[in-house]
Design a protein that fits this description.
Blueprint (H helix, E strand, L loop, with lengths): L1 H21 L17 H11 L1 H5 L17 E4 L2 E4 L16 H10 L14 H4 L4 H11 L24 H8 L13 H10 L3 H4 L17 E2 L6 E2 L11 H10 L12 H8 L4 H13 L6
Antiparallel strand pairs: 1-2, 3-4
Helix pairs in contact: 2-6, 4-6, 8-12, 10-11, 10-12
């Protein structure tokens, strides 16, 4: 019996060690950012396409105040309520003391400069596909924004979901940095905008019980995390709009039926209306190329 107990204890220690090793936060490849110089003008386009202000401005912000990225917006989920943090250039409350590789680690690995996993309410699973130059440009632009000393609000997440290290296990199961759709070269810009920068699948794709995206039902629509209605599907067997309809909606916020955009999608349209017509057309072409769900 003593030998059995000893073996079980040893096995538990080994299993814990293996688990600790496997759930360790990944490190960004710093060499990918060596020598890169960011361009703030190009970074503004990346910032807009990625919807950074949409989640990180104060809940009641309007107009230019949306560029003060103090956070505080609540995002409800089955695992608790997450609050967007302060990402202004303030060195204490925000990310003013970060480096370019710190930002790259957050965006592409979901890891903080202190080596902690971020919750996937922050869409790093999409941003992981960002080009290093775009990260550098985004960093250059974000440093031009106004700092603010407002402290970030802690997430309202209970046990066991508040165990950050466990997110390493979640990443092993669901974090894939490759693209979902294989596309021809003419669709690559649209894919980059949809699957990476604009992270459209975060809302338009259903999730499993552990919060991982169901890639088998890519862009197939999903319950609204707020509990109010559903996010519509974008696959061509469910969405009858033409490519021109999709592009016009992203520019104007009006559907072919003359309904107006509402909810958080209004922020998405506000962002896309500031991009070029070529980018909106690229997104529309990608959407129309989605495979049907066959349901």
């Amino acid at each position: 019996m003593k030998k059995l107990l000893g073996f079980l204890v040893l096995a538990a220690i080994v299993a814990a060690g293996v688990g600790w090793f496997l759930t360790a936060p990944s490190q960004v490849d710093a060499s990918a950012y060596d020598g890169l110089t960011g361009d703030a003008d190009r970074g503004e386009t990346v910032f807009t396409a990625a919807g950074c202000a949409s989640c990180h401005h104060a809940p009641d912000a309007e107009g230019e105040a949306k560029l003060v990225l103090v956070g505080g917006q609540p995002f409800a989920s089955d695992f608790g309520t997450f609050y967007s943090p302060n990402i202004t250039p303030d060195a204490q409350a925000g990310i003013g003391d970060w480096s370019l590789t710190d930002l790259a680690g957050a965006l592409t690995q979901g890891v903080s400069p202190q080596g902690q996993h971020y919750y996937p309410a922050f869409p790093y699973t999409a941003y992981s596909k960002m080009e290093p130059q775009d990260v550098a440009d985004l960093w250059a632009y974000m440093q031009t924004l106004p700092p603010d000393g407002t402290a970030s609000q802690p997430h309202d997440v209970g046990f066991p979901f508040n165990i950050r290290r466990a997110l390493g296990g979640w990443k092993l199961l669901f974090f894939r940095d490759g693209y979902v759709m294989d596309v021809d070269p003419e669709l690559e810009r649209g894919r980059y905008l949809v699957e990476a920068l604009a992270h459209c699948a975060e809302c338009h794709t259903p999730r499993n019980a552990l919060g991982g995206l169901d890639r088998g039902r890519w862009m197939g629509g999903a319950p609204n995390p707020s509990g109010d209605g559903t996010i519509p599907p974008l696959t061509p067997d469910k969405l009858s709009w033409s490519a021109e309809d999709v592009a016009y909606y992203l520019e104007s916020g009006f559907t072919p039926e003359f309904d107006a955009v509402g909810g958080h999608m209004a922020e998405v349209v506000e962002n896309f209306s500031q991009l070029t017509a070529e980018d909106r057309n690229a997104v529309a072409a990608y959407v129309k190329a989605l495979p049907p769900l066959g349901e």
